[in-house]
Write a structure and sequence with these properties.
This protein is α+β, with helices and mostly antiparallel strands and about 325 residues long. The protein is built from nine helices and ten strands.
Length: about 325
């Protein structure tokens, strides 16, 4: 999937006409039609109903349009802030990020702008294991990493804690309540990425289930949040954990998102750098991380695990 496909989808959805959308985008209509068709194949769903006279959004297209617009808005914000950081300096630092960072990336960039003295940062969205591999290989200067306490050769700067919420069918007997006990979900399959694909998330969630008194029945491995939510919306029995920064991805009225009572399922986000990183970069990112933690604390969010530097036994080796 490419960002230009999302851009073309939004343009056609707003114009409800492929020709006018192409004029707005200053490209040929065949290109717009081809890329929208390709996006539909990749999403495995039809976004538009087409006839010789009219174009209209399908229910799936209507459901996905808000997320598509948010994605383009986030890209514009990220680009503008990155350009601002680059305005007065040619030094570029490469930072790996993951999905579902949400507005916390904006908060980090605000802190970074204050501390950066004009340094330029380039952000790359990559899977967690790839981020660690590229950081060790020197192809990244820093990386956002969830859920690890230590990693050989790396220094971890704590950023924030994610108390996870859960998505479940709106038809579930407890879905109308304001909060859930994790044990309320014992009869539903857990829909989560496999242990191989996301060991931190898998182990954290299954351990929390055992602590709540039940062994979770793990359903088919999740291939992505949107696919899992679409399945729950369509009637697939199950529940899935969601990072609070990704709650806006839930748009279906057939899916309910609720916080958990008792001990939350919490996963820490840290910024990883190599131990031999440029001292100026190390100081800059340590300052920005501290400012971000202060901002979050002023918002009233606390996390006992946020200490000046992270160390411990929960290691990831690549």
């Amino acid at each position: 999937m490419e960002l230009r496909q999302i851009q073309y989808f939004v343009a056609v959805a707003e114009q409800l006409h492929f020709g006018r959308a192409a004029e707005q985008l200053h490209i040929g209509q065949p290109t717009v039609s081809q890329q929208v068709r390709r996006l539909e194949r990749e999403l495995r769903t039809q976004l538009f109903d087409r006839s010789t006279r009219t174009v209209s959004l399908t229910p799936a297209g209507q459901a996905l349009l808000p997320e598509a617009r948010e994605l383009l808005t986030a890209l514009d914000s990220l680009t503008a802030k990155a350009q601002h950081l680059a305005a007065s300096d040619t030094t570029t630092f490469r930072v790996g990020i993951g999905s579902a960072v949400g507005q916390r990336l904006d908060d980090f960039l605000d802190a970074l702008t204050t501390a950066s003295n004009g340094a330029c940062f380039e952000f790359q969205t990559l899977p967690a294991r790839t981020r660690l591999e590229q950081l060790r290989a020197g192809r990244l200067d820093a990386a956002f990493i969830r859920g690890i306490d230590s990693a050989p050769g790396l220094r971890l700067l704590p950023l924030w804690c994610d108390p996870m919420v859960v998505a479940l069918p709106a038809s579930h007997p407890r879905a109308a309540e304001s909060r859930l006990d994790l044990a309320d979900l014992a009869e539903l399959p857990l829909l989560v990425a496999s242990r191989t694909a996301n060991p931190v998330l898998f182990e954290t969630v299954t351990a929390a289930c055992r602590k709540a008194g039940f062994e979770p029945t793990v359903g088919p491995p999740s291939t992505g949040l949107q696919d899992t939510l679409a399945g729950i919306s369509a009637g697939t029995p199950g529940w899935t954990p969601i990072y609070p920064t990704a709650v806006n991805a839930v748009s279906s009225r057939r899916v309910m998102v609720l916080p958990l009572d008792g001990d939350p399922i919490t996963i820490r986000m840290s910024l990883a750098l190599r131990e031999d990183a440029d001292p100026n970069l190390m100081e800059l990112l340590a300052t920005a991380s501290a400012q971000l933690r202060d901002t979050i604390a002023r918002e009233g969010e606390t996390c006992a695990e946020l200490t000046p530097e992270v160390s411990g036994s929960n290691e990831i080796r690549t």
